[in-house]
Predict the structure.
Amino acid sequence: MSQRFPDVQGGGSLIVAWQVKGKNILVVGGGEVAAGRILHSLNADAKVTVVCPKSGLNDEVAFRVAQQQISHVDRCFEPHDLDGADMVLSAVDDPATSSRIWQFCKERQLPANIADIPSECDFYFGSMYRDGPLQVMVSTNGNGPKMASIVRKKIADTLPQNTGAAIVNVGKLRKKLRDVAPDISEGPKRMKWISNICELWTLEELVKMSDEDMDLVPTFYDANIVPSFDDIHAKSDASNFTSQ
Ligand SMILES: C[C@@]1(CC(=O)O)c2cc3[nH]c(cc4nc(cc5[nH]c(cc(n2)[C@H]1CCC(=O)O)[C@@](C)(CC(=O)O)[C@@H]5CCC(=O)O)C(CC(=O)O)=C4CCC(=O)O)c(CCC(=O)O)c3CC(=O)O
Ligand SMILES: NC(=O)C1=CN([C@@H]2O[C@H](COP(=O)(O)OP(=O)(O)OC[C@H]3O[C@@H](n4cnc5c(N)ncnc54)[C@H](O)[C@@H]3O)[C@@H](O)[C@H]2O)C=CC1
């Protein structure tokens, strides 16, 4: 029988987009690596607490504490800091302390990343590109973090600047369509229709799509037509004309 399915390629990571909005993330350490972890966590709308003696905070972390973007516990890590935490990110410069933190996390079944010890990580960070709702993460699975950064920059260079803005509008359009056709039985038709729009329209056209354009979508959807940008505009120009 010929092979119809993808080959399994073990040794990778399960890359997922973990939802931490409103969750408590404990960061141990306040140096450069911690600053990166803190920014990633804030960008994902988590509530961040950093445990680190004040003297150890770098400028960026001290700034975020002063701005009250994060809570600060001014001392070295203690096990009860894990009370109420949903996730732990350790970035201290002492491997023995790191391993102790990892042990405490495992006793409590808390997901943890211990920056300097890959074998003591439930998950790794990756090199991140962000443009509005778009996030691209590159991982080399621990083989070459600097290479991850280089590959991420190469990918970013190939992406048009307006990709994020186009995706914002696709998000609005999908929401509008779900309001128009909320029924579960509409699912396959709705998904095909949106996929076709994403393939047919250029990024520039998606960016230019206005609220009025989106209001015309139900007409086309109900008639099972996948309109081009020009079709939508012909219709919106006509309706402007008749309403005058
Ligand atoms: C396993 C992992 C665990 C984790 O941290 O989650 C890990 C582990 C370690 N990194 C180390 C070193 C460096 N890390 C960086 C940079 C980054 N490291 C990141 C992730 C990861 N690092 C995870 C795997 C990711 C993957 O493989 O794809 C990035 C992508 C994301 C981020 O940290 O947010 C971020 C780039 C962000 C960006 O620029 O976009 C640089 C370069 C620099 O600082 O510019 C260096 C020096 C050069 C080099 O070594 O490559 C060492 C010490 C090694 C030693 O002592 O020799 C260890 C421990 C070890 O390997 O034993
Ligand atoms: N995974 C990664 O991406 C990378 C990991 N590393 C490793 O990550 C670790 C941290 O790196 P940096 O941030 O550059 O170091 P750093 O020296 O700037 O920061 C260490 C921080 O830990 C704090 N700290 C030390 N003991 C503590 C304790 N018991 N409780 C609370 N805070 C404590 C210090 O006050 C300081 O704020 C190092 O071991 C480094 O080798 C380094 C580069 C990249």
Notes: The pocket of NAI (ligand 2) is lined by residues 28-34, 51-53, 56, 76-77, 91-94, 97, 115-116, 145 (CB under 6 Å).
